[in-house]
């Protein structure tokens, strides 16, 4: 098999496996996996910026929340139906990402990390400040009637799983096409050596800005879908924690790989799920996982797989 | 009450906050300046200081002043020791690589927070101040051409708050003296200026790093012990000081001690005044955006000399 066929077989195989899961999984894991696929979409969006472009952003909750609130608020206050609301969510996330990207990308390294963190914090506080519309920390429930897309009721569990799978597949195909295209190679070049990339004649600022915008749009799509599928929007999704989680998932699964974010999300979700059976200390486990990861597997699960077995992994 | 006394009250509250903030931020700035490490767990060291202050005062018993005095010495030492241990077991092993230390300190944050929750519980608990006399403050005003002094109702502070301001200033002077006048400070500055050259001259850089990380954490813990009689000890209290300390360190210029102190006073006072007269949330939003923009357009901060 040549590389292209292998890549298609591996990623197509995962999607087929997930589709098969719809028919065979018991209800509990069926529900879990739907949630994991939406969160993994968020992690894949994050991975474009962090894994492939090498920018450590701590502000992606801003884009997730922009998607969620762009969708939720237009349903709640403008009475839009699910389709247009979803679109508004993705668009608002892309706009917010482009806007904050223009400013934040003027800095680099530690400063970039802090600036993105601060933008996200300002966003979180803004959600609290306009509590009259957003209902702040308490959040609001998205009415069942509004969660119908093209006649499909997304609050139904089977439909929810399939919708999450469609979102996940779309994001995965987008990312795969992106990183295998010339543009993706440019991003990796920027990650490895930005000065040299610049000297080769690439407009690295524009490339980074495009990456941030696409990443923001995918994160926003995940946020909007999360709101639609699970029927709730709240300020906690805009908090620092939701910026750190995708970082954790991506690192665990392997930064700069397409499957890494999904593997990482799956692993972390079940690690917490299983451990919460006998302890409530899930944060302790997340913390220990982070520390162990930085110490022993800085490339994450799929990163190690790529290093040792499949050198061709995109 | 007129505007003047109000403003003075707000400024006093702001000064208390500024001194605590300065201590926390100087710790963060020291760690960043010398080690080039962004310590996300700094706020948790602050929280640990406050929680330990409660634990220690409960264990010691007796009059509040005794327990508080013990806490004032012991809590920073314990937190410092924890930080040194964290440095030697984790940060040293990732070789102080900027991105990996950030991730590792995020992990540390979760671990400390969860362990505190499990050991100390989710309640916010008060620590009694060693002394807490109410002091009425006079106000001066021109009345019919003459300067008159009177005591407006409500214009008062407590002796403890004044002591916090004094203690903050004293410790900052101590830190400055350590950096500028002692051999330890010299070694630290040498490592800051050129790590490899310092290593070549036989300075045990790794031990200096461990010590700096410990001192930074101890300063945060000290600040927390000072503030805990005014606020309360809670396992989630680390987030705000972390963000504020970041703000201060950035505005002041990463790694610059005088800049950090000036920025702490600026932020403390303005936060005190804005929160009294306007909405605190709005004040925070504006301050956060302002800081982000300072960093975007002047990455070296107000007093910084080199770009990040």
In short:
The complex is a heterodimer of chains A (314) and B (308). By secondary structure, chain A is mainly alpha-helical. Chain A has helices at residues 3-24, 27-52, 61-76, 82-104, 110-129, 131-134, 157-180, 182-192, 194-199, 204-230, 241-253, 260-275, 282-296, 300-308, and strands at residues 140-141, 148-149, 152-153, 232-233.
What does it look like?
The complex is a heterodimer of chains A (314) and B (308). By secondary structure, chain A is mainly alpha-helical. Chain A has helices at residues 3-24, 27-52, 61-76, 82-104, 110-129, 131-134, 157-180, 182-192, 194-199, 204-230, 241-253, 260-275, 282-296, 300-308, and strands at 140-141, 148-149, 152-153, 232-233. The longest helix of chain A is centred in the C-terminal third of the chain and has 27 residues, at 204-230. Chain A is globular, with a radius of gyration of 19 Å. Chain A starts with a helix and ends in a 6-residue tail after the last helix. The relative contact order of chain A is 0.18. The mean pLDDT of chain A is 83. Chain B is mainly alpha-helical. Chain B contains 11 helices and 4 strands, in the order ααααββββααααααα. In chain B, helix 1 (3-35) packs across helix 9, helix 2 packs across helix 8 and helix 3 runs antiparallel to helix 8 (205-227). The longest helix of chain B is centred in the first third of the chain and has 33 residues, at 3-35. The A-B interface holds A 56, 103-104, 106-111, 113-115, 117-119, 121-122, 125-126, 128-129, 240, 244, 247-248, 251, 281, 283-284, 286-291, 293-295, 298 and B 38, 90, 93-94, 98-104, 106-115, 117-118, 239, 243, 246-247, 250, 254, 279, 281-282, 284-285, 288-289, 291-293, 295-297, 299, 308.
């Amino acid at each position: 098999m040549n590389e292209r066929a292998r890549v298609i077989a591996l990623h197509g195989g995962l999607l087929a496996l997930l589709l098969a899961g719809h028919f065979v999984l018991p209800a509990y894991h069926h529900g879990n996996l739907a949630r994991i696929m939406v969160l993994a979409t968020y992690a894949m969006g994050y991975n474009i910026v962090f894994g492939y472009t090498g920018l450590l952003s701590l502000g992606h909750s801003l884009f997730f929340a922009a998607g969620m609130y762009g969708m939720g608020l237009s349903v709640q206050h403008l009475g839009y139906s699910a389709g247009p609301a979803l679109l508004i969510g993705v668009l608002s996330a892309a706009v917010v990402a482009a806007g904050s990207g223009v400013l934040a990308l003027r800095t680099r390294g530690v400063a970039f990390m802090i600036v993105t963190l601060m933008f996200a914090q300002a966003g979180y506080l803004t959600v609290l400040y306009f509590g009259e519309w957003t209902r702040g920390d308490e959040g609001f429930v998205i009415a069942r009637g509004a969660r119908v897309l093209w006649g499909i009721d997304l609050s139904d569990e089977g439909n929810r799983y399939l919708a999450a799978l469609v979102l996940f597949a779309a994001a995965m195909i987008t990312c795969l096409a992106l990183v295998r295209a010339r543009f993706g190679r440019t991003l990796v070049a920027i990650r490895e050596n930005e000065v040299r990339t610049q000297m080769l004649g690439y407009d690295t600022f524009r490339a980074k800005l495009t990456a941030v915008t696409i990443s923001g749009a995918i994160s926003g799509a995940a946020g909007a879908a999360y709101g639609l599928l699970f029927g709730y929007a709240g300020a906690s999704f805009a908090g620092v924690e939701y910026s750190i989680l995708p970082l954790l998932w991506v690192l665990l699964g392997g930064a700069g790989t397409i499957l890494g974010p999904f593997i990482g999300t799956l692993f972390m979700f079940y690690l917490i799920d299983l451990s919460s059976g006998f302890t409530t200390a899930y944060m302790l486990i997340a913390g220990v996982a982070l520390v162990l990861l930085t110490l022993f597997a800085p490339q994450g699960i799929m990163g190690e797989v790529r290093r040792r077995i499949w050198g061709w992994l995109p | 009450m007129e505007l003047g006394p109000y403003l003075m009250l707000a400024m006093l509250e702001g000064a208390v906050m500024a001194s605590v903030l300065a201590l926390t931020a100087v710790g963060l700035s020291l760690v960043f300046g010398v080690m080039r490490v962004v310590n996300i767990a700094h706020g948790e060291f602050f929280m640990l200081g406050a929680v330990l202050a409660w634990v220690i005062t409960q264990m010691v018993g007796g009059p509040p002043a005794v327990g508080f005095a013990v806490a004032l010495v012991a809590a920073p030492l314990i937190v410092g020791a924890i930080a040194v241990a964290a440095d030697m077991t984790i940060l040293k092993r990732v070789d102080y690589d900027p991105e990996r230390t950030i991730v590792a300190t995020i992990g540390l944050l979760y671990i400390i927070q969860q362990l505190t929750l499990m050991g100390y519980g989710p309640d916010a608990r008060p620590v009694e101040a060693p002394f807490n006399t109410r002091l009425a403050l006079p106000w001066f005003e021109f009345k019919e051409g003459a300067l008159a002094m009177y005591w407006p109702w409500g214009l008062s502070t407590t002796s403890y708050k004044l002591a916090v301001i004094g203690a903050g200033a004293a410790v900052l002077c101590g830190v400055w003296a350590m950096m500028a006048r002692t051999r330890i400070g010299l070694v630290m500055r040498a490592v800051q200026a050129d790590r490899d050259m310092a290593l070549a001259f036989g300075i045990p850089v790794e031990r200096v790093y461990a010590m700096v990380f410990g001192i930074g954490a101890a300063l945060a813990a000290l600040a927390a012990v000072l503030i805990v009689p005014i606020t309360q000890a809670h396992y989630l209290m680390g987030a705000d000081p972390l963000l504020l300390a970041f703000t201060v360190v950035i505005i002041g210029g990463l790694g610059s001690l005088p800049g950090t102190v000036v920025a702490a006073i600026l932020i403390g006072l303005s936060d005190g005044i804005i929160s009294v007269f306007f909405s605190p949330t709005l004040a925070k939003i504006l301050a956060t955006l302002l800081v982000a923009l300072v960093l975007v357009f002047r990455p070296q901060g107000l007093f910084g000399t080199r770009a990040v």
